[in-house]
Amino acid sequence: MVDFKHSVVYQIWPRSFKDSNNDGIGDIQGIISKLDYLKNLGITCIWLSPIYASPNDDYGYDISDYYAINPEYGTMDDFDELLLECKNRNIDILMDLVANHTSTEHKWFKDALNNPSSPYRDFYYFKEGVNHREPNNWLSFFGGSSWTKESDNSYYLTSFAPTQADLNWENEKVREEIYNVMKFYLNKGIRGFRMDVINCIDKKPGLPDKNPNKKGYQFPDDYILNGPKVHTYLKEMNEKVMSKYDDVITLAEGCMVTLQDAMNYTNPDNKEIDMCFHFDLSTLGYGSLGKYDFRKFYRFNASDIKSITRKWQNAMMEHHGYIANFLSNHDNMRHIERYGDIKLYYLESAKAFALYNFMLYGTPFIYQGEEIGMTNLKLDYHEWKDYEAINSVQAMHDMLHVPLPIAKKIGQYVTRDNARTPVQWSSEDYAGFSTTTPWIKLNPNYTVINAEDCIKDPQSIYNFYKKLIELRKNNEALCTGTFKELNKDHKSILCFKRSLGEDEY
């Protein structure tokens, strides 16, 4: 029996993990070639970021066909082989379920766009403009309007990129289609899903303006996040899909999730999902403009980290919720620099935060390369691949009149590309990732930071992670025990106790 509370999950962002056919792009066969590495590390589960067919405007989070594999990554036969090889090593797979939106290249959307009487029109949000402007003043997550123009006065909702059209979950047929996708992959043998921005699937009825008395676009926050029907839909998903399979694991990416909603989503009595990410640590130091806020730029201290830890650990434990703990992922800069000091305390920073992540109440997640201490790479503007960063920099310049050089400097610091550089496997050419130039610039420090060297060094970050995983596997108190903070008022030391019966850490 699989128990998510005893799992250790490793996130693979396929494009940058391992290239097997030497085209500079990571692929499924590359993942297969590194499964023994992951098994040796001790992980029990892989979270596989999207490998579906996609035009790659948002690198897989814009799906054009849920039932096809992106040819850059391989074929469905390759995926079936990956499932088999993982099963042989007792490693489970969580797939990314991207169900808030599809690519505008998806056949549903194409039919909706080309045929005014198409039944797929109601799969999305099409709406007439108001006074020769967008239907409302919503600001997208990636900057600019949340609406993309279809014709002279008709628009469709795109809460992220203009090529990511929001699905209308009010439509029962939309939900049925998503449930069919889930069943297709569960029948293949995957363990479950990490659900991308799943708390965005309930939009405020009527799609009204947000803060209509303010000028300019307004971020719609509670108009599109954690609406009451998210719980309704998740309960239905559980009833129609999850409950039909044994030992399924479900994880929500709770975009800007509130503590109360996270507890409700994950309380087993509610029969919605197993665990939820939160982003209070990721957004630490953000201002009203989010990570691009140049007025309040990443100011925080140890007390802030303690406060966030206390808030989530205590509440989720006491109210029977459950959390997925992470420090880095494909959407955020690597935490070793975000919270640590790589100039003076490189090893100490990596090991301290690894210890923190693995000792908390909840399931620990590792982002590829984290276990060998990979660092961010500050890419020049012309080297960026990240649509969010490119568009947000332009929006800062156009809407807020931030000088373009300053906007680019801010974007350079926060672009998601920082953490998407290829995994550094060795000190060989191209870091052992490929035998040709990778799709995105390689961090030149691969000659001193790489998996091959880390494995050989008993004091390395890799071997510290390996020991932590083994420690957690062999001590139930670290998996299901209680959390109690000690020395709460200390300004800089985070100290806590995990207990189960007579076992204490």
Provide the descriptors you would attach to this structure in a database record.
TIM Barrel, alpha/beta, 8-stranded parallel sheet, Oligo-1,6-glucosidase, domain 2, 2 domains, 3-stranded antiparallel sheet, 31% helix, 15 helices
Number of helices: 15
In whole angstroms, how far apart are the ends?
26 Å
Strand arrangement, largest sheet? 13-12-11-5-2-1-15-14
Secondary structure class reads: alpha/beta
Contiguous low-pLDDT stretches (5 residues minimum) are none
CATH class assignment of the largest domain: Alpha Beta
> In the residues, how many domains can be counted?
2
Binned strand content: 5-15%
Report helical residue fraction. 25-40%
- CA-based gyration radius: 22 Å
CATH homologous superfamily of the largest domain? Answer: Glycosidases
What is the second-level CATH architecture of the largest domain? Alpha-Beta Barrel
Strand count, sense and barrel status of the largest sheet are: 8 strands, parallel
What does this structure look like?
This protein folds into two domains: 4-101 and 169-504, Glycosidases (TIM Barrel), CATH 3.20.20.80; 102-168, Oligo-1,6-glucosidase, Domain 2 (Oligo-1,6-glucosidase, domain 2, Alpha-Beta Complex), CATH 3.90.400. Helix 10 (346-359) packs parallel to helix 14 and helix 11 (387-400) packs antiparallel against helix 12. The protein is 31% helix and 14% strand. Strand 11 (192-196), helix 6 (228-240) and strand 12 form a beta-alpha-beta unit. The chain has helices at 28-33, 35-41, 76-88, 107-114, 172-188, 228-240, 259-266, 302-318, 335-338, 346-359, 387-400, 404-414, 451-456, 461-473, 477-480, and strands at 9-12, 45-48, 52-53, 65-69, 92-98, 101-103, 126-128, 147-151, 154-157, 164-166, 192-196, 249-253, 275-277, 324-325, 363-367, 482-486, 495-500, 503-504. It is an alpha/beta fold and 505 residues long. An eight-stranded parallel β-sheet has the order 13-12-11-5-2-1-15-14. The model has no long low-confidence stretch (mean pLDDT 95). The protein is built from 15 helices and 18 strands.
